[in-house]
Amino acid sequence: MEQRELDHLRQLRDTTRRIDDHRGLYLVPTGLFLLINGLGLAIDRSRVTDIAFGVGIAAALASFVVVHRYYRRTLGRVVKAPDARGLVIGLGVVAAMVAGIAIDQAVEPPISLALLPVAVGVFFLEPTKLGHWRMIAVAVVVAAVAIAPAWWGADRSANLASAVVGAVMLLGGVLTHRALQRLLPEVPAE
Amino acid sequence: MTTPFERLKDVDPLVHAPARLAILTALSACRSADFTYLRRITGLTQGNLGSHLTKLEDGGLVSVKKSFVGRKPQTTASLTDAGRAAIDGWWAAIDRARGDTEEWNEEA
Questions:
Q1: Strand pairing of A78-80 and B30-34?
Q2: A189 — phi, psi (to 5°)?
Q3: Which of A16, A179, B30, B106 is the most buried (most CB within 10 A)?
Q4: How far apart are CA A54 and CA B37, in angstroms?
């Protein structure tokens, strides 16, 4: 067996193990929601912008259903094996975020303590082999947004955080999906 | 003294075939996967995948369950304990053979 074939098998194993992370389009509805939310809060409000905001939010939520059906049709269903490391990172990030939100509300520090754990969590997800540079770039962007209130003020930074994190999720989701498409072999015609 | 290549001949041919290796490797990385996913990840045709899954099921390496989700039939496959041992054993044999080959090359 050639090295190329062994590498292909290892890639197949890694892709299956991390298939949920590879289904990047799932990030798009949330990214869209956050982007619209951030932009909607930043501009002067009128009836037209309120309607556009509502339509945008509804479209973002509806797109989640579309994405779910698309992946179910094209990629089928995989029940994951238990992933202790991912579970520990995920629970750790959520616990730190909850603590960060509580501290942000109580003390109002000059930076967002709720967002910093997200940056750390994204950084540690790098071994998913979704693209080293991409995950580090996302972690840096989220960390920058977390410390933005120190310079920008809390209100403007909240809008900025929502829009930037949304845009990053949108772009990251599409790029991750494209990477998955490149990984998968062509399905031969019957 | 046997060479690393001679030792590889003992690998189970039911596991060693490339298409079946791909199926077993994919299933070893999850609890179960349906037919659509296995077809997409391995790039096999529907007929080929069905045929290999049947062979693996007959060999006791894979468990195949057929059910309906709504009106659509769904085939789900998972590794049996014997299947997991077989694919883990195959990877161990390959890694051992690679190590032995490097030693063998240094000695030669």
A1: antiparallel
A2: -70, 145
A3: A16
A4: 36
Residue B6 C-alpha, separation from nearest chain A C-alpha, in angstroms = 14
pLDDT in tens, B75-107: 999 999 999 999 999 988 888 887 777 776 666
Best of A8, A77, A80, A177 to substitute, by most chain B Cβ atoms within 10 angstroms, is: A77
Q: Do A17 and B30 touch (CB under 8 A)?
A: yes
Amino acid at B19: A
Distance from the Cα of B1 to chain A's closest Cα (Å) equals 22
ipTM given for this complex? 0.84
Copy the structure tokens of residue A171.
């772009």
φ, ψ of residue B74 to 5 degrees: the values are -135, 130
Residue B45, classed as helix, strand or coil, is coil
CA distance A26 to A39: 21
Q: In chain B, which residue's Cα lies nearest the Cα of A7? A: B22
Please state whether the predicted TM-score (pTM) of the whole model is above 0.80.
no
DSSP, res A187: P
| A94-148 pLDDT per residue, tens | 898 889 888 877 887 878 788 888 888 777 765 555 556 777 777 888 888 888 7
